[in-house]
Amino acid sequence: MISNEVRRSGSIGAMVGAYVVLAFLASGVLLAVQANSGIDPAALSLTQFGPAVAVGIVALVWRQRLAALLPASVSWDVVRGHGVAVVVSCAAIGLSTAAMASDSMKPHGPATVGGVPFAVFVLLQLAGAAGEEAGWRGFLQPVLESRYARPVAIGITGVVWAVWHVQAFGAGPAVAAAFLAAVLGFACVLGFLAVGSYSQRVLIGTAGHWLINVALYLVMGDDTLGVPQLYYYAAAALVVGAAVWISRRGAGVRVTG
Questions:
Q1: Rounded mean pLDDT, 48-77
Q2: What span, in angstroms and rounded, lies between the C-alpha atoms of 203 and 111?
Q3: Is the pLDDT of residue 253 over 70?
Q4: How do residues 141-159 score in pLDDT, each as one tens digit?
Q5: Within 13 Å and on the Cβ side, how many CA atoms surround 220?
Q6: How many whole angstroms separate alpha carbon 195 and alpha carbon 199?
Q7: How far apart (Å, rounded) are the C-alpha atoms in residues 162 and 158?
Q8: At 116, phi and psi to the nearest 5?
Q9: Which of 80, 185, 214, 240 sits in a 20 to 30 Å window from 38, CA-based?
Q10: Which burial class, exposed, middle or buried, applies to 244 when counting CB atoms under 10 A from its CB (0-12, 13-18, 19+)?
């Protein structure tokens, strides 16, 4: 839990603003690197490591302040319980999306991705998810929680996370709206279940991010912005995200740590 003294001490605006700008810039640089890397972005998008690069730079500049803002660790029993809830939530989203999409498309299933075997793709997705969660659930959300209630911090993190996927907002307003809804729904899942210290939050966030990326590939393949499957995913993510939010409130769990 973050003390009231820390909550009142100074502004987080410069730190948060620097992180957001750096995350976008670093991801843009990595996008250019990808073009000359020979790595197919379908297998691993190097832009996923942009948030981790941004956190590293911010931590160097604001090391002491950041250490005071990040929350303390929680019991590993709590982490394990929330980890199970993340797995269940991702399974519910994936299965619901597959069920709704069954009339319009066949599940893609495991297959070679970007020139690599499916098993290698799964491992690469784990690395990419960790690169993102080092920034979103590890840094941005808990720093925002030092000033705002957790639902507000989740919402801001979710919007920034969605906008960071700039390609989704160039595919038309319907796709952009559905993608934003899907990200906000899933941000609720990860945002309420990722608790504890920086490493604990990154661990839980990475597990969920990894599982949903793999699950969506099994359902949709590479066409994650295609319709109607994106609409189905958005609906499933919003319902499961709302269920997680309600369950956290109903359980009476203090979720600021």
A1: 96
A2: 27
A3: no
A4: 999 999 999 999 999 999 9
A5: 23
A6: 10
A7: 6
A8: -120, 150
A9: 214
A10: buried
The count of other CB atoms within 10 Å of the CB of residue 213 is 21
Tell me the two tokens of residue 107. 């599940």
Q: Give dist(CA 153, CA 143) in Å, integer.
A: 8
Name residue, tokens 């075997």.
117
Question: Is residue 53 pLDDT above 80, yes or no?
Answer: yes
149 three-state secondary structure: coil
pTM recorded for the entire structure: 0.91
Per-residue DSSP letters for 35-94?
A: HTT---TTT--GGGGHHHHHHHHHHHHSHHHHHHHSPPP--HHHHHHHHHHHHHHHHHHH
> ∠ CA(97), CA(102), CA(108), 5° rounding?
80
The per-residue pLDDT of the chain, averaged, comes to 92
Would you place residue 9 in the very low, low, confident or very high pLDDT band (cuts 50, 70, 90)? Answer: very low
What is the identity of the amino acid at 72?
Answer: A
pLDDT tens-place string over residues 205-225: 999 999 999 999 999 988 888
